Amino acid sequence: MKMSKKALIVIDIQNDYFENGAWELVGANEASLKAQKMINHFRENNLPIAHIQHFAVEGNIPFFHPGTPGVEIHNNVKPLEGEKVVKKNYPNSFRDTDLMEYLKENDVSEVVITGMMSHMCVDATTRAAKDFGFDCTVISDACASKDQELDGKLVKAADVHTAFLAALTFFYARITTAEGYISA
């Protein structure tokens, strides 16, 4: 029986999501430190890592503008020389990118997902990965979200994060913490 090969996907942990950034998330620094633990674990085990970097397409989002410090990958999760960096323009990290080719080249059958925002790019990428046949695990404490509003009601970031991850557990992904994953 062939073992499944795992890859870590680190989605959009970029400066604009941190304090003084253009689109600050709740708990971004804490989530990035958990993602850093996951990156170190994958590096120690010589497993593939794909760093995803979002670039705004003119006018579509008010952050991640090309040429600004905000678009840069945060220092806590900086790719090493030779690690894969996938540039994207949409929430789904597979759309119009070479992520799929990279995963296929590395015989990956299981993806472990970290990143930002839980309710947008993490959700879209996880659902797409499952639809493409990958087994998916999302590292809950290595993701972050933002307060949202609907019909004048404020939905706190923690509730947005929990609701989106809870929805993924039905079919799309296993959800665990960085510590839970590494110790398993």
TrEMBL record:
Signal peptide: none
A Pfam family reported for this protein in Swiss-Prot or TrEMBL: Isochorismatase
Ranges for domain Isochorismatase-like: 7-151
GO molecular function, one term: hydrolase activity
Keyword tags: Hydrolase
PANTHER family: ISOCHORISMATASE HYDROLASE, PEROXYUREIDOACRYLATE/UREIDOACRYLATE AMIDOHYDROLASE-RELATED
Name the UniProt record assigns to this protein: Isochorismatase hydrolase
Organism expressing this protein natively: Galbibacter marinus
Organism lineage: Bacteria, Pseudomonadati, Bacteroidota, Flavobacteriia, Flavobacteriales
